[in-house]
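Replying to the earlier thread about multi-chain prediction with a worked example.

Input:
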Amino acid sequence: MFECALIQGELFRKLIASVQDLVQDGNFMCDANGISLQGMDSSHVALVALALKKEGFVEYRCDRDVTLGINFANLAKMLKCMGAKDRLSIRAQDEGDSASFVFESEDSSRVSNFELKLMQIDQEQLGVPETQYKAVIRMPSSEFQRICKDLSAIGDTVSISVTKEAVKFSVGGDIGSGDMSLRQSESGDVDGDDSEKVMIELEEPVQQNFALRYLNNFTKATALSKTVTLSLGTDMPLVTEYKMDNLGSIRYYLAPKIDE
Amino acid sequence: RIIQNEIETFFQFK
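Result:
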C-alpha cells in the first residue's frame, strides 16, 4: 500500500505542470524515502528529474516500493478539479492498475475522489554522475524566466558566460544581437531578502550555448520556487534546479550546443 | 558548425 498527503495540493499540480510539456508520461518511483521521477523529452536533448522527500508530506506511507506509470496530461485533467487550497491525498495498492487522488477543501465541506488508470511504462533510468561544476549561479527564478522569454524573440540559441563578477546571456539572430548581464549582488547588501540576489560561485570562467526553447520549457517550474540555480561545466549539460523548501527539487538537464 | 548533442552523450543508462 502506498499513500501520501500534501496540505498544499496546489504544489503537486504545479509540479505536474512543470513536467507535462517536456515529458508525456513517466514512472513515479515510490519508496520508503520519497517519490522520484525521471524523463527525457522526445528529442532526447533534455532530462527532467523530480525528487520529492517523504519529509515534505504531511502523511507518507510506502510499505513496498511502488511504480506508478502516469500520463501527465491525464493526471493534469483531474488535478484541474482540485481547489487552490485543497489538501491532496494519493493512494495506490501495491499491484494496482489505478491510483486514487482525493482533494479535500480546508473545511472538509467538499471532497473529490478521482481514480487515474495507470500505464505500464518501460523506461530506462539514466545515471546522472555527481559533477564538479565550473560555475553555479543562484538568481531570482522570475528574472531567469523573463530573460529566456525575451531573448528567445531575438535568437534561438543563448550563450551563457560566467565570470566572478557577472553572468551574461547573449543571443544573435536575423534582426541583430543582444546580451543581458546580471552582476553578482554585493554580499554586503542588507536590503531585500536573499531570494532577490544574484550569487555566483566560480571555479573558473565558463561559456556554453543552449537552445532557448528548452530553457523556456524549464521555466514552467518558476511558480515552484523564488530562486533558480544554474550549474555549468565545459561541454556538459546545464543543470537548472528549482528547490521546493523541504519537499525536494526539480532538476532539468540540457545538453549543450557544441561548436564542431 | 554548431551541433546539438543528445543528453545520452553525457549520462549513461543505469
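Residues 9-19 of chain A form the longest helix (11 residues).

Feel free to reuse this layout for your own posts.
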